[in-house]
Amino acid sequence: MTLSFYEYMGRCLYDPEHGYYASGAVTFGKGEHFWTYPQRLRPLFGWMVAEAARALFTRLVESGKVPNDAPLTLLELGAGNGDLAHDALQYIVEHEQSAPWAPLRGRVRYVVGELSAALRVRQCEKLQPFIASGRAEVRALDARELSWDGPFYGVLVANELIDAFPCELLQVAAVDRVERTCVRAVRGGAELDGDELWAALKEGVGDDEIRLSETTEPLSAWPGGVPDSLVEYLRTLAPLIHDLDACGLLPVELCWAPDLPNFVHHVAKLLTGDGSVGAALFIDYGGTSRHVLDPRSSAPHLRVYGPDGARAHTRTVLRDPGAYDLTWDVDFTELARLALAAGLRVPFFGHQSALEAAPIDLWSRASQRLLILGRSREGVENNFQATLEAHELVQRFRQAAGFRLMALSHPNLSFPEQRFGLADLYCEAGLSTLKLGVGHEELVAALESAGIDPELAEHLKPCGDPVADACDRRLYGKRQALLEVLAGWLVEPGAL
User: Fold this and answer.
1) Total number of domains constituting the chain
2) What is the model's pTM?
3) DSSP labels for 338-377?
4) Is the omega angle on the peptide bond into residue 359 within 30 degrees of 0, that is, cis?
5) Is residue 176 one of the residues assigned to a domain?
6) What is the Cα–Cα distance from 196 to 192, expressed in whole angstroms?
């Protein structure tokens, strides 16, 4: 008697009484469970999202596909405690009289879609003035079953949403040897099913009485047969799995979210169906398929966050179910593949720092004053120390490994490429890797001759993702030069 990892993770996060998000156990801010960029960069992260939305709203209006009197919606899914929504709305209201915002004056409304009733209470409190004035609304909404009444004209924003979808945990030993991880719960010698386990947890039974362990079963044992969407996903990964085998890196773990295909279907319907026209911005940690398969990551691809900071970034997923966040690295290659199959465009994929664009400059005096003030509010009394921390925060945001931004849009919507820069490669061409046996000294010399930091050579390796390694180090301006340097050493998926 076992639970699939998907069921276990889903209950850990969304059980109405004992789930980490559903019960409201999650807290945000410095020293709390989460201190993500919407909090760390307040209010500037919200401002950057607002300006990105303005660029997209402007294209919507210019497209002629939006009625003149129709509201423009900024829809945020999974809004945490509402910081991003509050700061974006405040920025919009304060700048509506400026020339860039003039065509949108009075038309933008902010809708938060949130599954957790406990978090909806916090969001309503945070956004109360905007709700009272009719500029904001908080709705009960499960992002995985996204629905919308009537045409949608606007921008969907999701910051660290997909990584909270329950996932199946797969063990990949070869292309034809993939097993599914399950969770076994035992109490007093008797095995418990999911309902019995959560009933015991709600009674206050602790880890000392319930023993949780992982076990695996072949995909052939999957009740009802292996889902077609998983079969297709594994088929697309086959060349990369062959590469991992050639590099001696198998077996590896792989996270797969059964709800992702249906979610992308609903997003496509929202942005393109029934006269709708819109775009979506997904900000999350993860990378290409190469990244999520690479076991050499600095942190496990499946990990926990929560009240015990010592457990952050660790894979201790079976301890204290319901008390911690369980999260995983998003495969943006798969997200793009599903989006294209659903009729959407993928006009941009790159590092999260692409959000930073004029008129927002995190190094400007005005921005630095706000960030220094934020550090002071967090308890940093020394102004010099607050200044140092503000500078370090900007550098982290711009260089944070694994933090990605992907834009999806209606196929006929003109996308503001100059606003986001060039798209990184998300298809097969973007999954190229270094050949085996590339000489380190030769690579360092080639990077130096191209004016690229030679330390990057330490991060370039067979089965790795050289494009992602470059973007993590803020090399947008030298990205093409890097690819030219590596051209003779890159091979296509499955060629190692």
Assistant:
1) 2
2) 0.94
3) HHHHTT-EEEEEEEGGGG--TT--TTSHHHHHHHHHHHHH
4) yes
5) no
6) 5
